[in-house]
């Protein structure tokens, strides 16, 4: 069993197509099929079954995908952890997602501040951070979003925290100890960016409940979000920092479904010429979580 075979299987599972998996892995469809056949032969199981035009995981395939995802993540972590420690401290173009600094630990904030002289920092939406890394406009990105895949670049997940709903203390939701998507479906939601990318798991659930996306407003500033909630009502989706000391007249209620937790990701490309410097930076950031 080879690590590239597991990567090929995970790509096929994500794209439900060998051809699309091949594009995301920069290889041929035949190589994807060969990797999957080799895994099936070695393990004595069937990983995929065809339904229409899609290749879908079997129950055994889903089990292996879960295990393989963890294995690949650990291997990627080793690449970062043992990157050339003697690499020069090159200046890096760093993209950070909107309001990342409101969600990361103080130690991570301090680490980035200490290395500010070697960073060109640009704040953008999660989707733009991803595009910047894929296009080479950014060497590395640190983003906060709900769980999702990044098929066109390398990724290291470095942390996780509970997401919260910020609302007026007079809101009918304020008396609840925890919230699910169904509790939010009839409320106006205030988000830091467009829902399709940063909030994919939440809106998969809301859309299934018939949520009207006209009830979404994008407000990238937390201070502006607080102002809007105070003046017009609504519910903001925020980080756990608001649970410690919510503004006066507000409360922060946790989203109880762990699938809606915030995830912190470092995005990069191992094939980029400056990867050793990126790996050194990523190792430092990871160590602060």
TrEMBL record:
Keyword Electron transport tagged: no
Molecular functions (GO terms): DNA binding; DNA-binding transcription factor activity
Superkingdom to which the source organism belongs: Bacteria
Pfam families: HTH_1, LysR_substrate
Keywords: DNA-binding, Transcription, Transcription regulation
CDD domains: PBP2_LTTR_substrate
InterPro entries: LysR_HTH_N, LysR_subst-bd, WH-like_DNA-bd_sf, WH_DNA-bd_sf
Keyword Transcription regulation: yes
A GO term from the CC aspect: protein-DNA complex
Family label: Belongs to the LysR transcriptional regulatory family.
Protein name according to UniProt: LysR family transcriptional regulator
Taxonomic source organism: Gordonibacter urolithinfaciens
